[in-house]
Records
---
Amino acid sequence: MDNYDPDTSQAAIEVLRLTVTDGEFKAPIHSHKKGQLVMPVTGSMLCEVDNEILMVPTESAVWIPAGLPHRNRPASSASFCFAFINSSKVALPNKCCTLTITPLVREMILYLAESSAKPPALEQTNKITEVLFDMLAQMPREQLNFPLSSDAKLRKVANILLENPSDRRTIKQWAAYLAMSDRTFSRLVVKETGMTFGLWRKQLHIVVSLQQLSQGISVQSVSEHLGYDSVSAFITMFKKALGKSPKRYITKQ
């Protein structure tokens, strides 16, 4: 990757498959002239953009529009595909988002990653690319993001919660910590994130729990890390948010 520049290619799509072997993948915040689709093959990925953090478990992918500064952080020993796409060729949003990836779409991306290392059968590759672009535009969006804020006070709260997601301070306690009224704090959260404080913190718990569950951490340990009173309370929250229990969601394929 050190000597690779996807923006020099004229191809409609170019796919690389990479594996993290040393437990770390260090990449500074950067951007591309092309759009980028990041699909974990094994493990998971966190994508950081300026106003949110997106969780990308296996069987999902994150779409990063052209020109958007970002940083990808795969889990230890993760394997993933980077697909660099000419954004004018596919109808994907102009906003960063997480997409559900069907088994067929997944296999087409893996095929293109494999074929990039060999002399291309151009006609076949073009046909697969055309079908892939049509299908990507139809992939459902997932709510696996934790919105951040440029407001200094709210960003301070976000950083504390990211460091310690089990922090259970109430709106009243957070407002006192920031030296503002309960109402002002509540309005600030809605204005900056589009969510109530309770929903905003729940989104963080979804992101953190998926990250840990995809690494093989037990449901019990994740529940304790997030500060839930019981495993059943955590499972109930998770199921209401994502429609499946934690174990069923992680093993859904």
---
Amino acid sequence: MSAAVIKKKVKVPNLVGLSARNAAIVLRAAGFPRPDIRYVESYEKRGSVVSQSPTRGQIVDSDAMIRLTVSQINLIRFMPAIYQREAPDGSNLLRDFLWVIQHLADDVEEKIDGIHTYFDPYEAPEEFLPWLASWVAFTLDDNWPVEKKRYLIKQAVEFYRIRGTVKGLKLFLKLFTDVEPEVIENEWPFEGFRIGVTSTIGVDSVILPPVNRAHCFVVDFPLHPEEVSDELIIQIHDIIQAQKPAHTTYFLRFMGERKLLSSFGIVIGEHAVGSGTEVVVEDDYDPDAEPEDFDIGVDS
């Protein structure tokens, strides 16, 4: 049985006299959702809050809907007098219908007046953040909290200054995985295949294309292979490929048991296996066993 969710209690601020736009800002800062606005004809300043429910000072849940009554001029006042006649009970169907039109028109006007806020990551609506991130070619993770998304979009241009560097690579990997790896430059974990020196299959030999250590680096993650999902491995490879210099080659390594996830591949016949090649050989290798007893997988 799931535990009950404890809702945060918030004190309702005083909104009467404020403009509807400023009242919405105050409510958002206090932790309330967007208010429910109703229009009414009043002698108060157009667009100002005439009344609110709940009233000021009440303690309510932070997700409670605050209803505001806002002074506004009904569009029926710009129509001929015959349309402004009221029924004996004081109702007017056309007047009520035009309130809906007024809401739609004011909503469009509000967006136009506040169009500049859409270009500020800290003020733009949450649903607009992915579009804003695409302008700076920055990828957002849907699982990130909205505060983190806003901060990263704001800093995206600064991040590009360190793109292709060790600092930038470690930063992006930590942002997307919440784990900061160690990046070792000019390093490669294998010496290559040398007969009589490093030639025991599955122990000290790896067949790879020629490697220039000056253009290589190793990414060491402080995670055990069993803790790493396939989705995370793919994400790590995508990040490294996007952030590393194009002429360099990397080797991804995890702590504990060796898990070969290199950016190189084995040459098979005339074709080379691409990035993400995985070669796994069982630790209990028997040189006298039949070939089918080996567990050798190639995954391009």
---
Amino acid sequence: MDDDPLIDAIRRAVVAAPEDVTLRVHLGRLLLDAGRRVEATTEAAAAVAVAPDDAAARALMLEALQPDATASPAAPGPDDAATDAAGPPPASGFDWQAAEQQVEHIVEPAFVDDDGPDPDPASAFSVERAGVRFADVGGMETVKQRLTAAFLAPLANPELRTLYGKSLRGGLLLYGPPGCGKTFIARAVAGELGARFMSVSITDVLDPYVGQSERNIEAVFRAARAAAPCVVFFDEVDALGQRRSQTRSSHVRGMVNQLLTELDGIDGGNEGVFVLAATNQPWDVDPALRRPGRLDRTVLVLPPDAPAREAVFRGHLRDRPVEGIDAAALAKRTEGFSGADIAYVCEVAAERALMDSVTTGSVRLIGMADLLGALGEVRPSTGAWLDAARNVVLFGEDDGTYADLRAWLERSKR
């Protein structure tokens, strides 16, 4: 749809003055009058975010969220549905389409659509653009610094990389409680590198046929080398590279051996291939995977701190119709919550507002009462992991791998 010249002009003015609530409300009103309800809702949400108490912005939001009675066509009847499916009957002669519909459950059709050639098995390991950067990640400053030293700084400074003999190959193991952003930060690394991203899980690799799992791992690295620079991310690597001393399965041992071979890259073919792996159970990962040249650096990804929790709240509420939200107060009430826990709190709050709107028949915005009510229903999910981690640190073998975890547990008095 082409924009109206007046809408175009006001949109440019809004871009120049994004904090001008009156101007943004005027643009939203024009969009709403033009029948462009989704765009009007976006402008109204932006206006409410800037000025939650502005009456005009809130009125526009409520009006934009009302269902458009004129946009819903009448439900088709049975005869209409049949006509749409089969097309209009012929003006004269025998109706072959109607006849085929009457006997399609008895005989196979004369012709069928070709689904195309069988997919290439290696296509399951295709690479993609990351789409996010470090700026999109709330908090996690220590993790960002470690990742910058390992990957970003050497790539951005080729002269210094050559001077110090720093290779562009290597791997890093992210570990910590579930739902704290390990996958997201790995994707952000690819975005910062300007590299392709490939996410691999155990279901992508594991195959019941002998030798096929090893070939799948080989295919992963072959695709990554062809797309270098590329970040390969192994999710739940403890399932793929579990301790060989804890299993008698030759199938698992074969997968671990193949992964070690590919990480070593004996022919030097891993230049520009950055391997990141994530696990909730680092103590179950085979020690050989953490030797130098493989996943030799270990980074602890902790539950978000208060500034990070506030950023997560803002991120998950940004595109929802909200009013009077105190993200800092919410962050103080959610210590120990993971990013996934906070996302669920926002989901529950939106659900409460939605159901209230359905019950009362009047659309309203999401407020602090909804979020506080959701906090009463949601409990942090990191407690069980922290208990297990404390036992490993206190009673397990301590080779210095979990020094960061031990220090954090002591600081947090866990």
